[in-house]
TrEMBL record:
This is Pyrroline-5-carboxylate reductase. Residues 8-106 form the Pyrroline-5-carboxylate reductase catalytic N-terminal domain. NADP(+) binds at residues 11-16. Its EC number is 1.5.1.2.
Length: 277
């Protein structure tokens, strides 16, 4: 989808909502943005952004309904426990055809569809924290009343902060174990490689530079080359060389099983949280 996005409201512009807001502003594709936060201090911090109307709920009690009524797309970014009350609050204010998008982890499309007016198009999304630098992976899942135009506008919205994958809702939790939690896995690998460098006698500063810039450089090379990671790994791994010996040790540690187990554990926890544990 090209051109301008329709009016968008972000209800609860916390860290993720705020990241998406900044992406929308920087894209130049959204000239009509309304955001709500509870406090004047938080609202004030966003008030200077181009094309943004920032509402503090402590100063404007009807702020959420005002914002929802003025928007064609409503992003729900409040904490998961607060979602049902917010939906009950805004339901009467939504005009027909307004698309409601959840960025609240663990809240089902069914929860949204039961509270909102019948026929409201609902999508559930799972962005990740690289949205802050425009490099997100966002999974989106469509509810029962969503059409191709709704998907196109929501895809365009999230493409302002990165890439978008469409999945059925029953894959959203699994997606969260890969792209949602994934940045933490990468940071952990960088931490451990940094420790290994310190153990080889490098200063902490030099160790960090080596480990961090190697990851940044490798991923930039991957992006620029368009090659399969396995192929790039082979090119670094000379036969009977030092890298081959190191990679053999990593493979003996069964990284494949470790990553499968780690993501399985995350998925089990997502299911527990969905059941309220």
């Amino acid at each position: 989808m090209s051109g301008m996005l329709p009016p968008i409201a972000i209800l609860g512009a916390g860290s993720m909502g705020g990241a998406i807001l900044h992406g929308l502003v920087e894209s130049g594709q959204a000239s009509d943005l309304i955001v709500t936060n509870r406090t004047a201090a938080k609202a004030q911090a966003l008030a200077g952004l181009t094309g943004v109307r920032s509402i503090a709920l402590e100063q404007q009690a009807e702020g959420n309904t005002d914002a929802a009524a003025a928007a064609d797309v409503v992003l729900v970014g409040v904490k998961p426990a607060m979602v049902p009350d917010l939906l009950r609050e805004i339901a009467p204010a939504l005009s027909a055809g307004t698309v409601v998008v959840s960025i609240a982890a663990g809240v089902t499309i069914d929860t949204f569809e039961q509270i909102l007016p019948a026929g409201t198009p609902v999508l559930r999304s799972m962005p990740n924290t690289p949205a802050l630098v425009g490099k997100a992976v966002t999974g989106i899942a469509a509810g029962s009343a969503v059409d191709a135009d709704d998907i196109a506008v929501v895809r365009a919205l999230f493409e302002t902060v990165g890439t978008v994958i469409e999945v059925p809702e029953n894959q959203i939790d699994a997606l969260s174990t890969i792209s949602g939690s994934g940045p933490a896995y990468v940071f952990l690998l960088i931490e451990e490689l940094t420790k290994a460098a310190v153990g080889k006698g490098f200063t902490t500063a030099d160790a960090r530079t080596m480990a961090e810039q190697t990851f940044i450089g490798a991923t930039a090379l991957l992006a620029a080359s368009g090659e399969d990671p396995a192929e790039l790994r082979r090119r670094v791994t000379s036969p009977k060389g030092t890298t081959e010996r190191a990679v053999a040790v990593l493979q003996q540690a069964r990284l494949d099983e470790v990553f499968a187990s780690a993501t399985d554990a995350a998925l089990a926890r997502a299911r527990e949280l969905a059941e309220g544990h």
